[in-house]
Amino acid sequence: MIERIQNLLHSDQMGKWVRPFFTQVLIVLLAFVLGGFVILGIGADPIAAYAALIKSAFGNVNSIAETLVKACPLLLAGLAITLAFRAEFWNIGAEGQLYMGGVLAAVVGIYFTGLPPAVHIPLALIAGVLGGAIAGFIPVILKAKLRVNEVITTLMLNYIIILFTSYLDQGPMSDPIIKAGISRRLLETSWIPIMIKGTRFHWGIPLALLITILIAFLLSKTMLGFQIRAVGENARAARVAGVSINKTIIWTMILSGALAGLAGGIEISGVQHRLIERFSPGYGFLAIAVALVGRLSPIGVIFSSVLFAALIAGADTMQRVAGVPIPVVYLIEGLVIIFASIRSIRIRSPFRRKVTA
Amino acid sequence: MKTPKAFLLLASLVVILALALNACAPAPAAPTEAPKAEPTKAPMTEPTEAPPAVEPPSEPFRVAMVLGCKIDDGDWCQAGYEGLEEAIKQFGDKIETTYTEDTTIPDMEKVMRDFATEGYDLIICHSSIAKEGIMNAAKDFPDTQFVWTDGDETLPNLAVVRSMTQEASYLAGLIAGKLTQSNVVGMVGAMDIPSTHRGYAGFEMGLKEANPDAKLLVNWTGDFVDLKGAKEATLSQIEAGADIIHGNGGSLNLGTLQGASEKNVLAIGAVRDQYNLAPSVVVTSVEWGFKKGFAMIIGEAMEGKLKVGDFYDLGLAEGAELSDYHDNASKVPDDVKALVEQKKKDILSGTLEIPNIESGS
Amino acid sequence: MIEQFTSVVFLTGFLASMIRMATPIVIVALGEMVTERSGIMNLGIEGIVWIGAFAGFATTILTGSYIWGFLVGGIVGILFGLIMSVVAVEFHGHQIVAGLGIWILCNGLSGLLNRSIFGISTERPTIVATLPTIPIPGLSNIPIIGETLFNQNIIVYLTILAVPLINFFFKEISWGLNIDAVGEQPRAADAAGLRVGVIRTLSACFGGFLAGIGGAYLPLALYSIYTNDISTGLGWMAIVVLVFGKWRPWGILGGALIFGAANALKWRLQNTDLPLPYQITLMLPYLVTLVMVIFFVRGGSGPSALAKPFVRSEN
After folding, report:
1. Which residues of chain B does C267 touch, with a Cβ-Cβ cutoff of 8 Å?
2. Which of B107, C20, C42, C45 lies in disulfide reach of C235, CB 3.0 to 4.6 Å?
């Protein structure tokens, strides 16, 4: 039995997937262990804290639903980053693209009246996709046509879009009663319906999963996917092979922005139902970590988005139940991310020695 | 072969870090002998940090607070947290409190639901923008009492607390109007939202009443924590001739007051008594009154007298106030002090009403 | 409005504000430049700025000495630069992820230390005076620029000096050339006998050191107090300025000054009667940077081996 597992682990097929996966899991676990020392350091009980974390993230149907509700924007934004980074386009602007998507979805949700849900919901989401795509298109067209560095443009656009959202929320779109940086409520016809009653688990989550599979397919099986990989791995060779680099990165970024925009749109019409200024607690930035911890593979991104969502979901419970103050929660989050960045540890595994011996 | 060694290095770094934390965690009395340091208050171990181990004999009243920022932000959330601490001070072990801080907006609903499920009697949502969350949670738990800060709607089990800063700000405006010699006064605010706009409107009203020629320069930093921006804005106002600066925001006031004290220009703080931040220039501060206000509300809720379905307006009568002049009393002429006292009495007696203006135009 | 914008008081204040904003950005960006030119991308500098600010502040409060404050801020920065380089060099870690991790870690750590040392009290300690200015005799009396350029604290002078020095270092000194070699062609550098890992580690530590100094500069020279949000994006701005300046010291200085100027302008615009929503004026620095990049700074993609781990082929 054990031998079979060992052989499985080292067969070419499984070795490609299973070993990196387990290495990653082990490394993340190690980060938690070290985080445990920190919790001990402040005089709290690490086991109780982690138990609270796990319970609040996966304890019952409702908590699993809550974790997945948070994983949804991380997953979509993580996919957005995955696509862009695969093509070596350093899109730091998923946050801004997500906001833009949220803004347009909210505009449709608030001002388009008299539509049945079957039209209104898709329309709001399409608006979100469009908003993100526009915000993604600006930096890429500047890069393709004028060679303007995308790190600057995407970062600057983040600030500009977030301030613009704040302007909308306190000005034209603000709630008529409370002008505290929140918009009117979206019309109920534009709300994504709840899938599991009594929770906030909405239909946007399966949609996001479906999209993940589509993106995985796109990356591995289609022409565009091939071009993205070619441009990212070796631009010169890609050009020689007749791949237009500009065209590829433009389409990649339109898609990437669209995904981030969809994340914003789903968050607004599926969860928050209002456009709140700074409605995203940094999903777009965290998505960079999500995508890279998932090793820029759509399937990996599913796992890492759930991991990060569980961490966010557990943050409140760890404070409340185990008396771990929020800075410590961030500290542990940071440790997990740093450790997850580790790509190779060449520890000689006992399995390997046996097999090769 | 090299890697495990480096790995040990990294791991040991983290462990050392943890140990270092361990060393400073049990509140080392910060040596105050440092000549440049102001005497610091001995670090307090936070009473609400860990759930109390000793169970009081009778069932305590359980209060939970949900905050959208950090309790030591020197601002909005700290003001709310101080209210919770004040309640602990007043009611001792008759109440049991807990809180979550830096809770994101999408999470607020979940956290409040969790608190309600765990049987907390009173849940305070100290965030004005969590409207959806508080409404949904309060509707689903009709037997739990909710309090919402700076909200705009109530429910049969939800009371709203509003910081009616316009009254104290009006008094501050009077002082500024009387004290300015250049007839230019500056205000540095965070965001133009109801809690700050009330103060802004009140301040402007007092200023114009005391000195119709005075011009008010207004800067908004767009952010409640941007020290850097607040200081730059303050200096730009001073350069434009302002000789009194009102910092109308919380922790960003640290930057405002710093700028004012560097240029030796009089300043008026906000949120709480900020005299100690720049003793040379702060004449007074507009206190928002959450400290007394929350303690009062928790007290009423304990006795079952929470005014659910209603608004608690924290004006001058309910805890908001204009701080003491401290050592800068000599900078305020006696007739101005008398005027302020007179107007304060008028407001308290109801003969003078300062309108509640929550947004511009 | 025009008279207002051309008065001596206005110009003096405007230039002073520009330099105040630009100085810490230049310090942090210069450090990051050295790190990146060796091939390591440390996105954690925003976090290192925070922890450096806290370390500098706490040390100065406890010892009463600015020198110790800056030193400890810098040393803490080195520590995190070291963590970054260990992850990057030894583990071939993904540098962007590790940087984000360091950012979040430092956020937590500085918050935690702040609480455990100073408590959750409104009575926060403050440094009595910020770093004193040293007027340069003669020059400091020139109107407008005298006050802003020649009546500054020691760190501003050092920063201005550092720009040509670091430029010289990378152009003429073999160490600087080695850093570039490692960042551009690690394989060739390795073949030529350079120790890629060591050079990268040292560069990352230097970058961390300057980020820590830049952080400590905030409480010690500008605000005399520490809050958890003291940095508000300084590290990110440094990265923008670095790319803006195409990884060259003079470019960094120029970029930081433009950003500082736009920042100084936005407050002054709010003080006029222009009917702009305040959010729009707040966008100004970012819009200006964007426009400047589009029109003047094209191309430039940084060291070719940036953020790529170097794996020495053993056979």
Report:
1. 219, 229, 232-233, 236-237
2. C45
Distance, C-alpha B29 to centroid of its chain? 27
B333 in the same domain as B226:
yes
CB–CB contact C13 B2 (8 Å): no
Count of alpha carbons within 13 Å of C126, Cβ hemisphere only?
22
DSSP bridge partners of A348 = none
Give partners of C (≥3 CB pairs < 8 A).
A, B
Query: What are the pLDDT digits (tens) for A307-318?
Result: 899 988 888 888
* Nearest-angstrom CA–CA distance, A283 and C68: 38
Do A155 and A297 belong together in one domain?
A: yes
Global confidence as pTM: 0.86
With b meaning 16 or more CB within 10 Å and e meaning fewer, what string describes C95-110? bbbbbbbbbbbbbbbb
Greatest Cα pair distance in chain B: 83
Could you tell me if residue B74 is inside a domain?
A: yes
- Coil, strand, or helix at residue C256? helix
* Same-domain check for residues A357 and A283: no
pLDDT digits (tens, 9 = 90+) for C82-123: 999 999 998 888 888 899 999 999 999 999 998 888 887 767
Token pair for residue A248? 């590829």
Do A141 and A239 have their domain in common? Answer: yes
The Cα C279–Cα C266 span in angstroms is: 10
Q: Which of A281, A275, A335 is nearest to A312 (CA)?
A: A281
Q: Residue B101's closest chain A neighbor by CA? A: A326
Flag whether B152 is in a domain: yes
% residues pLDDT > 70 (chain B)? 83
pLDDT of residue B88: 92
* Together in a domain, A297 and A328: no
Q: Which domain does A289 fall in, by range? A: 68-314
d(C-alpha B187, C-alpha B200), whole Å: 8
